[in-house]
Batch of 2 targets.
Target 1
Amino acid sequence: MATVTLKPIKVPDLRLEADNIKPDAFAGKKAAEIADLHVYCGNSQYPLGEFFEVAGEGGATAAETEVVIDGDVSRVKYIGMKMTAGSVLVKGNADMYVGAWMEGGTITVNGDTDAFAGMGMTGGEINVLGNAGNYLGAAYRGDWRGMQGGVIRVAGDAGSDIGTFMRGGEIIVNGNVDVHVGTHQEGGTIIVKGDAKSKVGGQMVEGEIYVFGDIEVMMPGFQHIGDVDVAVDGVSGRFACYKGDMGERHPRRKGETIYGKLYLKY
Amino acid sequence: MAEYLIKNGFVYDPVLGIKGDRTDVAVKDGKMVETSALSNPAEIDASGMTVMAGAVDIHAHVAGPKVCVGRNFRPEDKLFRATPQAGIKRMEGGFSVPTVLRTGYDYARMGFGFVMEAAMPPLYARHVHEEIRDTPIIDEGALPVFGNNWFVLEYLKNKEIENTASYIAWLMRMTRGYGVKVVNPGGTEAWGWGLNCPTVNDPVPYFDVTPAQIVRGLIEANEYLGLPHCMHVHSNSLGEPGNYTVTLDTLKQAEGIAPRNEFGREQVLHHTHLQFHSYGGESYASKSFESKSKEVAEYVNSQDNITFDLGVVTLDETTTMTADGPFEHHLTELNHLKWVNTDVELETAAGVVPYIYSPKTFIAGAQWAIGIELGLFSKDPMRTFITTDHPNAGPFIRYPRVYKWLMSKAAREDMLDNVLKYGDSVRDRCYIGEIDREITLFELAQMTRAGPAKALGLANMFGSLKPGMEGDVAVYPYNPETSEDPEDIERAFSNARYLIKGGEIVVKDGQVVSNGNKRTFWVDCKVNENPQVERDIAEKFKRYYSVNLANYEVYAHHYVPNPYVIEVDATQ
């Protein structure tokens, strides 16, 4: 595994759009070539080296490349966008679109991420050790293809609208979440270990949502269908199980109607 | 003005009967001229390349409210598809519902000179013209929709052809429209009751007139006026298995009606996107669904007063949009994607739904096959035009791919063997595997130039390189003597090396270098005074319309700054 270290040396005036910061773009390149890759700041294009000191070199393939960002990049967007393999470690905070549409590999952010992390991702793993922003694992505006695979783990809290149009994969939030969880969800699993505010599973078609804490206001479209004992992400317990959203269409498979499932821990 | 001599290209011109001869073509002062008329021309070396007149698109949804809705509610259609401004070009965006700028540039890059917006809701004609105005380069016209209009339904119930014609003339002037479009006759009005008219004999609720009466009545009114274009229909039950009988019933409405016009048009009915209307069977399953392209094409071949366009499915993710309101509801029930539905007061309705024609499904493969089959079964390329019903069956930028499929059996076999998941079922349920025909470049020029120009009544301006025609010339980097790979067809026709539009170089070395001088074509039809229609219009505006009559007209100075008006005198 070859490591490329990026040390932030200049805070951009505007937010930097840096979808080139990913193992796929760095693989097979020397430090100077990496520093020459472009980033956007507003409507202008700059070399990556203008904002980062680059050390090390990429491995032969993305899978053999590790990217370490040694500092705070809370004004840098699109880190790890569409990456397919390898790893990215951000030692500080990151801006929006971390790991958007990623297909594989691992991203770890030691601090917080802003909105749209893991948007539309189909595989791989994102670990946020701080808090995550809004639209975590959601769909791009207008799209019906939200998170489709992979895992997102957040050690802290997450914002609103997480898992919108989610179709697969797993989102695990250790802390609390804001409103709108799994809106239009059509698959996958969302686990909230803290509390959720409201609008949980609105227009949910299928998939699963687990909430360990409280839901401040339940959606009216969910029906209590019984209690179950299950183990979720290493925690066993008794959950009240609801099906819904009853106001939404639901597919039929093998003669059975499929509903979204909402589990609320006792 | 500039003079151009396009030298040594392989020229294809159906009007002049030139079939790939190496010859020179001359443009002067915006028009085609004899080469001897030039004094000091700029020379364009077209050796090893194909030269044709600018292409003409008879049916595409490129401007207006439903296109705009498509753009607005599909931001994902623009994602990663924006091209920054460069040179004289402004920023381009979008794929299946491109921005007006990309629309103009893409058509120019494909060598098009004229495009007909296929459905203009009269009440929103201003919006249509604003978008047409802002689309660079290409000349455009727009067809107002009449098939579900209350005036038309009431007049035709009483068989009042003259009143229908007077109303059409008035509405075309108000909307700066070009011709008579009909979408799901009666069915869209029935949709206001949550119903539809699945066959030509189902009466429209309340109005008690049948689609057959609407179609025949509008053909008669169109010929009464002698408009440049014939009646242009999207018939009932689009997309439904077994609908080919409805299609044949609709086409039969033209029997016995002769064209009457001064524009050289020889047909009275144009049926659009015939692919969507040539289905057999009872469901979309491969056990039942089947192609009826042969049956429909045979009927069209047997009549000489009908034209049609293909509407080929291109197997893309696209955005469907039509004034066929009930059909869009049917689609959203099928794919569960987002849906927009609009009622346009006394006139029409519309719906918009994204749709993915996946090569992994049998049905999309069969639809693809049926569109191509219609093009190959048709015996008269002058009556058969290439479209994708943009963006309904696919985006217009796929036309060159459609050319490839029509021109190469090998390209079709590759689709059936390697691209379609259910290629064997498609061979089994459709005719495509049995057809060996390959369209020639001369026939392609008929289907994309001379044919549609003639059907639109524009044969004196477009579709040929004859002296006196508009100076629209496309030069494609395609050598008919040496090119063997079918992919060359798609590559070459996707990006013309040169396009001269109205005598000006618009595409040079494959790049758009000018925003051209686009014009909006509309038809001003004079009719005798008709007090009854005038009273009916005043009455309907007073009682039903949400706007007042004075706010209805598309004022030329603002909305149509560069008009080309075709005058028709129907007072005799």
Target 2
Amino acid sequence: MLLEVKDLHVAYGSYEVLRGVNLEIDYGEIVSIIGSNGAGKSTLFRTISGFIKPKSGSIRFDGEEIAGKSPEEIVTIGITHCPEGRFLFPDLSVYKNLLLGYFTNRRDKDGFKKRLEYVFEIFPVLRERINQRAGTMSGGEQQMLAIARALMPKPKLLLLDEPSFGLSPKLSWSVFEVLKEIKNDTAVLVSEQNASLSLKVSDRAYVIELGEIRLSGKADEVMANPEVKKAYLGI
Amino acid sequence: MMIEINYFINVLIGGLVVGFIYALTALGITIIYGILQIPDFSHGNRYMLGAYAGFLAASIAGNMLEISYIAAILAAVAVSALVGVLSYLLVYRRLLDAPHITSFIAAIGLLMLLEGFALAVFGPRYQHIHTPFDYMVLVGALRISAQRLVILLSSIATIAFLFYFLKRTITGIALEAVAQSPIGARLVGINTDKITLIAFAIAGALAGFAAALIAPITLVYPIMGAELNLKAFVICVVGGLGNIPGAIAGGLVLGIVESIYGGYFDIRWKNLVAFGILVAILILKPEGLFGKKERRA
């Protein structure tokens, strides 16, 4: 297993946001996590990426316990997080944003050039915008830059929070198509409001409600589940 | 006519000299503000302690002016940088999670603490740092003090170096990244604590260098930091807090306005006029000369 989350509890003060979450991701998998706002998806992502310390439970990545490590250490280990809100560097160029994406491997100049070519092939529009300040680009282009920045250090796992936010349906679809291309190098845990879209490209899925995993299974099985259809797919 | 032009150019150079000293100090405040969003009121006293360190080093280094002045510069830069690093480690870092106002108060406390320290240790007397550039040089028909030329050239070189560092080196780019989005910086694996430490060291070093440059002209005394601090802050606000070109432009504008007014009109009104202009700029452009209205992510 690439990532194993076991009995994870996270609390803000006395309010428990995650109540014993169990979740697994294998190498080469795209896994969707589905849930309404406030179900705990973003908290789960922030805990895995080291921004929040869990109250209890274990997060094992590539066999190593990583719960409680700092975000810097988590990136170095091979997990990047592309959060909702993007957190780009608005006054820096696209190039410098991507350069900083490679910060943890910064001494490897050739590796950087290769990765830069790699993300430019995935998102050709970024090559055209290479000297533009990130903050002056359209929402969709910024979203692509945020994903590209997270892919720069060749992570083993990408945590992708609401990737279609601010994107047109067509662009959203191409972002999800990209996930299929990268998944052999980079497994993906994706949370998405547009569940039907993310389930189509996912291998497996989890449904989270009020901080607990309610359902899990193969993506097509989850998609066929009558309750999921009613609650998340609007069918 | 010739004399008048020469006088004007000398007044202008005088303004640039003071302006660059303002700019070097204001740069430190603006860099720290960019990273921590704290107006570090104690910054001027890093400058003051740097000047005293320079004075002590020069006295120890002996009578060879070239050597003692270089010792003074090195000591000033090192001590000011160290005071910067220590202020972060001992004070501001402990307050990162506290309400913002706590850091403001701590900064004022630190300002008074450092000034009290200097007064207790060195006394209120004016001290002097001697420079080997204590002569006039002829540039065309102009007679200019060599120390002033040294200040101009080394300030320009320092600012050029700072820009190179911020725009071209990965550590400098990371520093700008932390200022623009601390969360974004952590997402890509930047250790923001280390970057903040580097920012304080650079801010301190710039102040110490400014102090060692100007001390042979303006002398060394305990409240020199507080006096400069006030001006440096106004400069930062006028230039847009956190804005680096703004701090440089603001410093130069203030220096030149002061110098021209002092050179042609009543020198006693110099501060009033200079600050009047700065306040007027703020009324017309509240976000500062180079400031932007948008907030950071």
